[in-house]
Amino acid sequence: xxxxLIRNANLPDxxxxxxxxxxxxxxxxxxxxxxxxxxEIIEAGGRLVSxxxxxxxxxxxxxxxxGLPRMNVSGTLLEGIDLWGxxxxxxxxxxxxxxxxxxxxxxxxxxxxxxxxxxxVSDPGLVTVEALLEVREKVAPTIDLQLVAFPQDxxxxxxxxxxxxxxxxxxxxxxVGGIPHFERTMxxxxxxxxxxxRIAAERGLMVDMHCxxxxxxxxxxxxxxxxxxxxxxxxxxxxxxxxTSMHSMDNYYVxxxxxxxxxxxxxxxxxxxxxxxxxxxHDTYPKRRGMTRVRELMDAGINVAFxxxxxxxxxxxxxxxxxxxxxxxxxxxxxxxxxxxxxxxxDAITVNSARALGLExxxxxxxxxxxMVLLQARDPLEALRLKATRLAVIRRGRIxxxxxxxxxxLDIEGRPQTVDPADYAPIAAS
Length: 430
Description:
Blueprint lengths: L1 E8 L8 E6 L2 E6 L6 E6 L4 E3 L2 E6 L18 H11 L5 H17 L2 E9 L6 H13 L4 E7 L10 H11 L3 E4 L7 H18 L2 E6 L9 H11 L6 E5 L8 H13 L3 E3 L2 H7 L15 H6 L3 E2 L18 H11 L5 H9 L3 H7 L14 E4 L4 H7 L3 E6 L2 E5 L5 E2 L8 E2 L11
Parallel strand pairs: 1-4, 6-7, 7-8, 8-9, 9-10, 10-11, 11-12, 12-13
Antiparallel strand pairs: 1-2, 2-3, 5-14, 14-15, 15-16, 17-18
Helix pairs in contact: 2-3, 5-6, 6-7, 10-11
GO molecular function, one term: isoguanine deaminase activity
InterPro entries: Amidohydro_3 (IPR013108), Metal-dep_hydrolase_composite (IPR011059), Metal_Hydrolase (IPR032466), Metallo-hydrolase_Enzymes (IPR052349)
Keywords: Hydrolase, Metal-binding
């Protein structure tokens, strides 16, 4: 007797027509024609079952605050930072919690069941930290929420940040953050990377830094981040987020930098939606895209994971919590349209992001947590193309969200009565 049985599912690794049996919150079997009864049965009908989506880079303390205290008229990063500086002193714990929980509802409906959120620690009152620690506890049954102590105004640039960051970590924040390119000088940026990596090593924590979110090819703090990762033995536990300056760096320097990042086993976390609208603002034409060198990093064996970054906040007025939208944009901006490339892009919002967060029990294998998403598409490529509807979202073997299939009804003489976008898949090669 199983708790849940999913019949006739396709999996991202190419397995087709398999059943997935769930018992006690874990995957008990994956094979064809599983015999046995179940408390609930889902007929997948040859649709894709994926592990849940994972967002390795988000700002939950600011989400859904669009319009407070005013709109970002220019749409630029710097005005967004100024806006957040105006909003932050007015924040209450209750308001931050309410907006964050509302976003988490949206995330669950989108099959997004793990999020790493940066939490601003520039205000010594740490209202945002208190709020998101409360949210982390409340959403634990449905979402794995990691928190990053993030000195938004600069670790050295903001006089209160050094003490506030340490207090945030003492309160239970999971990851050490930083923003070296926002310090007043390149030297202060380098010093901040060294200090923050030392703190992480001493506390046994992971590191995730906003790094080189700039069009300036001389913003090279990722080099220091990789070197400090090696110095402190933090390999595999450090992420460089954004890394947009790599888009503008000369190829010779990058030929040295990427092997260093590979040696440090750095995770690279681009944010396609935000990077391409924030960067290149000083360019006329030709205009730079701004997103980092995704293909080259992947080819080097670096773990590349895509983040959403923002949803309706001072920096980004759009967004819907949809990691397939993030990946869909990445396919276009990175010009990764081959079959193999699109599979790698899908991995960047699932297994790669889970690896960056160090999630345990993630995946579609026997013994893994029974966390899954049933999509209205037959495979990862079609899921990306369609930004497919999440028909069922499963957490520890329990269905926590359902959405009706996207089916249009037609009234055209001589044509079908309904249209299912998932039926418009490519003709399989014979």
